[in-house]
Amino acid sequence: xxxxxxxxxxxxxxxxxxxxxxxxxxxxxxxxxxxxxxxxxxxxxxxxxxxxxxxxxxxxxxxxxxxxxxxxxxxxxxxxxxxxxxxxxxxxxxxxxxxxxxxxxxxxxxxxxxxxxxxxx
Length: 121
What we know:
Mean pLDDT: 79
Oligomer: single chain
CATH architecture: Beta Barrel
Helix content: 10-25%
CATH topology: Lipocalin
């Protein structure tokens, strides 16, 4: 009888652990939301919980789907229209990864260089 109880307790504990880990590894909730102010000539980005994103580099629209691993959001391939816009430095279209730091999303190039920050107010 004790052996059967131990098996049931182990199965329940294992199921709870797997459920907790699955929630942590697949959730994009720390990244979900709108980042940036989106004023004229300013970049903004909206990231959904499923990893899809859309926004603007301040001039050109962009959209795609990324993934979350730990504390890093990795941008997948994204579609963007590229046109020249006077007075705008389009850096968001160079995004490779991003991390949340308080109320800010810090965006990095593929070489790990920080290229910009978007606030979430």
